[in-house]
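pipeline stage [seq->struct] | target=Fimbrial protein | organism=Silvimonas iriomotensis | residues=176
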Amino acid sequence: MDCLPLLRRGAVVLALWTGLAACVCAGTTSTFQVNATVQAGCQVNNAVAPTSLGTLGTLDFGTQSALSTATVTSSLNQSASITLACTPGVALSMQVDSGQNYASGRRLKRTSNTDTVVYQLFSNAAMSAAIPVNTATGITYSNSANIQVPIYGRVQLPGNLRPGTYQDQVVVTLQW
């Protein structure tokens, strides 16, 4: 509709007085899309792509007798400062290196000399799923907002260890 003839006839005054629009001008409408893509992934300490976690925790075999021949087990005591969360269903894995004292197996080394004792790492409490060196090992979880890294250890004491503190440090890489 052409609005100019109506304006000349005083229709605007009537429209304002009655509250009705007396003039409808031609126009066009269009639409646009609004999208967001949410990607599956994980966060460590609330960071999407951290380069380092710091210390993941401690696997402590405790204090043992130098003469003990016991098999001692332990599990990773994950640091409370490390938080790991993933989108439900994300395939999460870990890769554990050989440690600092590897020689035909991961080894704890006495801090004041070269004495060592072999230990093994596992991804389950039954200690039936060994964690191989530098090989991806799947992590299963039921609570995607609070994932615990499943690392368990076992050491067979030889019965002739020199007294002292034995330790190793391994690097864990999380992948998703």
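stage status: PASS
auto-comment: The two ends are 61 Å apart (CA to CA). The chain has two helices and twelve strands.
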